[in-house]
Write a structure and sequence with these properties.
383 residues; two-stranded antiparallel sheet; 6-stranded mixed β-sheet
């Protein structure tokens, strides 16, 4: 004789409930697992943290000179730099959002060096402490230490380079670009957000400047593009693996890219002859002449439409190395693409040529770290 249906259903329900986990949450508990143990051994941030710690350890004497020996302890500069590095690697658009992520993201806490129950900094305090790193030009020194690691691992070339520049849109609107003499023929209809009509008005960097960011300059990429308030960011890469070996941020002008290339070429270490590849914009008499005076062979793309013809002739183009340099130089676009998308430099969030240049150099160091991780720590495919 079978069991009643209702009794059988109750037995089934009890068995089901016994196997099902309960949806309860304790308001407080202890955890004996450290953030170090929670991060997977093959996580891509681990090699970046390793290389970053080596560079920061080398910068410890620099940090010692930046802080006085008495008073209330500030945020450790090593933690500041790791947090800023995270902001670039994960495209976090503000310090406030970065602090919010550090509050609950165990991966971020591990990378920065915070314990699970350690309080997170107030965003304004974090920004104030970051300014001390700006004054010490720590970005340039951190960039140099990362480059030393790349050279020690034989990832860089000391003979063949490429150079190029790009426009970085400034954190200022077109409405802020006003006459320097303050002359305004019509009073604004709304002082907070006035209606502005630029049609028929001759505006230039000689007569106008931005009230929001006076260091920004009106510039355009080419004749078919609109003019924007911007900065000119320039990088020098080595041709072996495409690592950035130097940076230079300048105010845009007709010759800013070539001036920056000359400065970076002059800073190349060593006495031997090197090659520097570039596009057609660098095919000018002044640039090619300066390169040759610096013991640099200019592997510049020929601009046949230039008045007087190209400054690069068969003495340079007949060599196989010239064609190789022209292929390798295009990798510099990968650097700009990463810095503008992941590094959020399509439009800078900072003002002033010094601060924008600091962020530009630090972002280049972050790019090198990612590139070095891919070159040194990529998993070996199984046979």
């Amino acid at each position: 004789m079978g069991l009643p249906v209702t009794f059988r259903n109750k037995i089934t329900s009890l068995c089901f409930n016994a196997m099902r986990g309960t949806d309860t949450q304790q308001s407080a508990m202890f955890s004996y697992v450290s953030p170090e143990e929670r991060v997977p051994a093959d996580h891509p941030l681990r090699p970046i943290r390793l290389m970053t710690d080596v560079a920061l350890k080398a910068l410890s004497p620099v940090f010692e000179r930046m802080y006085i020996a008495f008073g209330r302890p500030s945020i450790a500069p090593e933690k500041l730099l790791r947090a800023l590095l995270l902001q670039i690697l994960y495209s976090i658009r503000s310090e406030r959002m970065l602090m919010e992520q550090l509050e609950y993201n165990l991966l971020f806490r591990w990378f920065v060096g915070l314990n699970m129950d350690e309080p997170v900094w107030v965003p304004t305090v974090f920004s104030k402490n970051r300014d001390r790193l700006l004054e010490g030009d720590v970005a340039r020194k951190f960039f140099a230490e990362i480059l030393e690691l790349a050279a020690a691992a034989k990832l860089t070339s000391d003979e063949h380079f490429s150079v190029d520049g790009t426009l970085i849109e400034a954190w200022a609107s077109q409405k802020s670009f006003q006459r320097k003499d303050g002359a305004d023929p019509t009073p604004p209809d709304d002082p907070g957000n006035p209606t502005v009509n630029f049609r028929g008005e001759q505006r230039s960097n000689d007569t106008h400047e931005s009230k929001t960011d006076p260091d920004a300059r009106l510039a355009r990429k080419s004749g078919g593009h609109e003019s924007k308030l911007a900065y000119c960011g320039n990088v020098l890469i080595e041709n072996r693996n495409g690592l950035v070996v130097d940076t230079e941020l300048m105010q845009p002008s007709g010759i800013a890219e070539r001036d920056a290339a000359m400065l970076m070429a002059e800073r190349i270490e060593g006495d031997g002859r090197v090659t520097v590849a570039a596009d057609k914009a660098y095919d000018t008499k002044d640039f090619v002449g300066v390169m040759r005076d610096l013991n640099v062979t200019p592997h510049v793309a020929q601009n046949e439409k230039r008045p007087g013809g190209s400054m690069i002739d068969g003495r340079t183009t007949r060599h196989a190395g010239y064609q190789l340099s022209q292929r390798k130089r295009k990798r510099i676009e990968e650097v700009f693409g990463w810095m503008k998308t992941v590094g959020m430099l399509r439009k800078t969030r900072h003002r002033g040529v010094f601060k924008v240049g600091w962020v530009f150099t630090f972002t280049a160091a972050a790019y090198n770290l990612v590139r070095m991780r891919n070159l040194l720590f990529s998993p070996v495919p199984s046979a």
